[in-house]
Amino acid sequence: DAGVIQSPRHEVTEMGQEVTLRCKPISGHDYLFWYRQTMMRGLELLIYFNNNVPIDDSGMPEDRFSAKMPNASFSTLKIQPSEPRDSAVYFCASSLASGSLGTGELFFGEGSRLTVL
Amino acid sequence: AQSVTQLDSQVPVFEEAPVELRCNYSSSVSVYLFWYVQYPNQGLQLLLKYLSGSTLVKGINGFEAEFNKSQTSFHLRKPSVHISDTAEYFCAVTGTGFQKLVFGTGTRLLVSP
Predict the structure, then answer these.
(1) Which of A25, A29, B59, B85 could form a disulfide with B47 if both were Cys (CB 3.0 to 4.6 A apart)?
(2) What is the pLDDT of residues B28-55, one digit of tens each?
């Protein structure tokens, strides 16, 4: 089975531009997470979904950030407008956490490295 | 709610020496525990996990960890490290009734010749 797929792997943009990061979770997983990783702040949970419904978005930095999960196989994280301080690696992860097979183990994508100039 | 403490931000060690990376957790409920490894410019991948049963769990690349409920610890060990083990290691915890996975701040393992 393919792992979590993220795109783009690298994005360089100018301040003020809109950025959209994409994620395809592992088929059958019922949870999807968006993390941000920086040297200063480490690994931060931004938002997570259960069965396509946002459960906890308390980690989203501000209104410039939004995330959607229109179906079980696709999610987006959007930043509009982007700022230099948004530069980071953004990870998507999925897990199967419900039922007898659920353990909460996360499977991570390779990440999207965002640079805002 | 759960929390994880990784006291060592960086651990330098020589090749072929043993290493222990420390992890302590806090939780009011039963837990699942994980260690993840992140190699440079890559995502996190699972090293090993404790769900139930034997408190000594073995993972990939010769790593093992021991769950100690009385000390609320889940330390990661390897008897002999290689240069290729240089990476960042994250301890994580979740309640068995599933809440979100909580990560520690990470420990950078630096293996030198």
Answers:
(1) B59
(2) 888 889 999 999 888 899 999 998 888 9
